[in-house]
Amino acid sequence: MKKQFVGTPVERVEDLRLITGKGRFTGDLRPDGSWTAHFLRSPLAHARWSKVDASSAKAMPGVHAVFSFDDLPPYLRDKPFPLLVPNAEIRQPLTFTTLANHEACYVGEPVAVIVADSREIAEDAAELIFVDYEVLGIANDCRDAAKPDAPPAHLSSKNNVAAVMNLNVGDAAKAMSEAPHKLHDTYFQHRGCGQAMEGRAVLAVHDPLNDRLSVWSAAQAPYMVRTIVGAMLGLDDTKLRVVAPDVGGGFGPKGIVYHEEVVVAWLAMELNHPVTWSEDRHEQCTATGQERDQYAEADVAFDDEGRLLAVNVSVIHDIGAYLPWGVITPWIGATTLPGPYVLPNYHMDLTITVTNKVPCVPLRGNGRPQAVFVMERLMDRIAQHLDKDPAAVRELNMIKPEQMPYKVGLTGRDNRPVTYDSGDYPGCQRMALDQANYSTFKERQRKAREEGRYLGIGIGNEVETTGLGPHEGATVRVLSSGKIAVFTGAAAQGQGHATVLTQVAADAFGTDLDQIEVFAADTALFPNGVGTFASRVAVNAGSAVHNASAKLRDQVLQLAADQMGIPSEEIAILAGKVKVKDEAAGRIGDGKPKEIPFAKLLLMSNGIPGYAATGHGNPGLSATDYFSPPQATYSNGTHVVELEVDAETGLVQILRYIVGHDCGKVLNPLIVRGQIQGAVAHGVGNALYESMYYDEHAQPQTNTLEEYLLPAVLDVPAVEIVQMESPTPLNPLGIKGAGESGTIAAAAAIIAAIENALQPFAIKISRCPLQAEHIVDMITRSKLEAQETESSVEA
Amino acid sequence: MSTAKIPLTKIENPEKTRVVTLTVNGLHYSVETTTRTTLASFLREELRLTGTHIGCAHGVCGACTVMMDGQSVRSCLMFAVQAHGHDILTVEGLSKEGELTPLQACFRAHHALQCGYCTPGFLITLTDFLTHNPDPTEKEVRQALTGNLCRCTGYKNIVDAALDAAKRMRANAEAAA
């Protein structure tokens, strides 16, 4: 009986090396005698200078070189990095320069690089570099920065508006003017840092024997690194190899290309010596992209039942000092906002503002948590206004399964109409509510209040674009050992891609998992890849492995048929060999093999010198497929949170956390559940803890993990995950992405639950993160207002 | 407009060295290293034991946790010279002759790791904890892990792995008795 691995919770193939200390992270790869780079970074949010005096630093023992902008060769000075995702609406396509060109626009922007025997020596040397900084005007809060008279974040800019965009479905203004009920609210949201446990890291080695530069980078998109490093250094991909080895978490911020990759690559060539660089935690907080502030003014119109008539939202988004990913984050948010609901009229305008802060880059969820927060808060507002159950108002508005595929009326980031392909949104919400014992919650809440405890429940729904194109590819090849190798460009940062790709290939060849080897994210081993973001790898690379495996099976069977002299339909592939099917065994001619191991088939396919080719002139057993999805596929989820708020301290204790989830066919339940649990943890951080604080000079105030609060083991609940499978018709495996759903609706659901718990204080919450002190402030203010009302009544 | 000035200072030679003699995973080492080298850097750079990772370098995340004389410590908060004469255990020393410890096996079985970067620290912390508390409650496991941060897993599977490992270790101990 053939084993089936897809859909089963197999243990990960990655784990053995990682639990025995044999992982190979970029910082672990340190050729003997390699030198360490360290970056002198701007201590000011906006400053210019005329000179960088590194003479004392260069004289320090153990220091090999110091470079600032003027020391770079012309090809690194003359052009900024290419813009990754161009958009016609971008007015200021600000991208990094290799090192800051006499002007720094955020604290942490690299001013100079020191190369020394060790990081310690390089840091000492950095202290000796003199820069005559002149402080410039600062664009700090994005609302102020958007104003016409605000100091520009870049001297070359007239204002701080990077882009003004809008999108429309129907006629929101008209619907709004005719609606029986209207509400208005203002929202503030902040996402924070990636804080992968491994910071960014780069190793570059120039190999003079092959005249090739190899770059190892803790990157989500090694092919993007190849593109940008190649473009900046003028290297074709024949001369440049980029590898993403084990990468210690990505979450988005490792999905762009930074100064350090280009500079370290150049240093290895320029100095003809291996050079490494590893980010420290302070640099992660200040020099790695993050998602920051977004303000939204929202109006909603609805009928007497609570049915949505129109939503009108005006957003100001802080994009930071540069736009390495263009304006993708707020744009994705804008197209995500309607979520699982029928929204006949929708208008959104976005003002995307440049500030003197580290650039905005996608962070797990990428703009979507902000959108979902607005929509879900509006749902709660409608329910409160009409005194209806918030779950019922949501269900009333949901797209029904029979409406699938459903056109939202928007154009997505993939330039295709936003069309939900499949799913049962009301069913998913009901499933989650049942698991949460939602119908009996009011009784639990009432009892708790009698004891002076504040229990609340909250709901958050999300629909997520996943599995975006343009493509990922895979080559599946028989090795001389008879094992099957899978080569793909898709990089992993802990998601277990190698395991699921192994499962897919093992099923195709009817073999055990240990007969499959996955080689990923090495540009020398596979020619093209896009990158790991947008929950897209299982969908794209998984489908590519599936399709390439099918092609290779055909090749193998055809070759076997030639050798056995029977039609290929009479041959089976199992456990590393081809074998005639039992019922056809009698038809095998004398002297013909009844079974052939893969290793032997490969030798036949490779051919015998001087003889005619076997295998139809297609030597080697190898097949490649690039999977290009016709459009994104949409996963969905419902979060239900029950929690208790301590009204004295503002501390929130999550009692139960339920996620109803649908990501189509599940390849490995262990991994999907792990993704959801981990993503919820990130969402808990977004709701309650994580915030990058800046002072009035745009100086970061949260520079360590003592100051920046990551959710720890006592903060994150065990998530109860209930799953349904609505396979997508858009790929052969029926799968949708699962990497971000757990984060996207978390803050919305948690904040709703806190508001629900604090009903007796009549508090409305329109922000996240909501830290304990915010809760205490709100309760205190509410009590004071109540006292004032009382005393004015008495008077 | 003001001008920010960075003072020029002379730094004394920080590259003083000492010979550190210690035991790591049962092997004796005597290595000359600079006095300011942390134990974490020493293990990684001098001994090339790169399983111990540096996550924050200020003692918050716990990725660098190693065992010194049977107690878990932060190797990023110690100088290598402070480990002189001591016995260190790192993640590389957990499994003997290729056989995973019950805790390691449970980490795999419960999907208690994703990227694996913080994992060595969790394994060492829990190895220490389970030695002292072979039959812990979930709450006790969570308390024991408050000094280890993980960005990938959301902790649940780590806690489950620890509880299952405790159970397996108790069963092993009973079988041996």
In short:
The complex is a heterodimer of chains A (795) and B (177). Chain A is α+β, with helices and mostly antiparallel strands.
Walk me through the structure.
- The complex is a heterodimer of chains A (795) and B (177).
- By secondary structure, chain A is of the alpha+beta class.
- In chain A, 29% of the residues lie in helices and 24% in strands.
- In chain A, helix 7 (222-233) crosses helix 8.
- The mean pLDDT of chain A is 95.
- Chain B has helices at residues 39-46, 102-109, 119-132, 138-144, 156-176; strands spanning 3-4, 17-24, 27-34, 65-68, 71-74, 87-89.
- Chain B has 2 domains: 17-93, Ubiquitin-like (UB roll) (Roll), CATH 3.10.20.30; 102-176, [2Fe-2S]-binding domain (DNA polymerase, domain 1, Orthogonal Bundle), CATH 1.10.150.
- Chain B contains 5 helices and 6 strands.
- In chain B, helix 2 (102-109) runs antiparallel to helix 5 (156-176).
- With 177 residues, chain B is of the alpha+beta class.
- Chains A and B meet through helix 1, helix 4, strand 7, strand 8 and helix 18 of A and strand 1, helix 2, helix 3 and helix 5 of B.
- Strand 8 (133-135) of chain A pairs antiparallel with strand 1 (3-4) of chain B, so a sheet runs across the interface.
Write the layout of secondary structure elements.
The complex is a heterodimer of chains A (795) and B (177).
Chain A: H1 15-19, E1 35-41, E2 47-48, E3 52-53, H2 55-59, E4 63-68, H3 74-77, E5 103-104, E6 110-116, H4 119-126, E7 130-131, E8 133-135, H5 142-145, E9 161-169, H6 172-178, E10 181-189, E11 192-193, E12 201-207, E13 212-217, H7 222-233, E14 240-243, H8 259-270, E15 275-278, H9 281-287, E16 290-291, E17 294-302, E18 308-320, H10 328-336, E19 346-354, H11 368-386, H12 390-397, E20 406-411, E21 417-420, H13 425-435, H14 441-450, E22 454-466, E23 472-478, E24 484-488, H15 497-509, E25 516-520, H16 537-564, E26 571-574, E27 577-580, E28 595-597, H17 598-606, E29 622-627, E30 633-645, E31 652-662, H18 669-688, E32 719-723, H19 741-744, H20 746-757, E33 767-768, H21 772-794
Parallel strand pairs in A: 1-15, 10-33, 13-14, 18-19, 24-25, 31-32
Antiparallel strand pairs in A: 1-6, 2-5, 2-8, 3-7, 4-6, 9-19, 10-17, 11-16, 12-13, 12-15, 17-18, 20-21, 22-30, 23-24, 23-29, 26-27, 27-28, 30-31
Chain B: E1 3-4, E2 17-24, E3 27-34, H1 39-46, E4 65-68, E5 71-74, E6 87-89, H2 102-109, H3 119-132, H4 138-144, H5 156-176
Parallel strand pairs in B: 2-6
Antiparallel strand pairs in B: 2-3, 4-5, 4-6
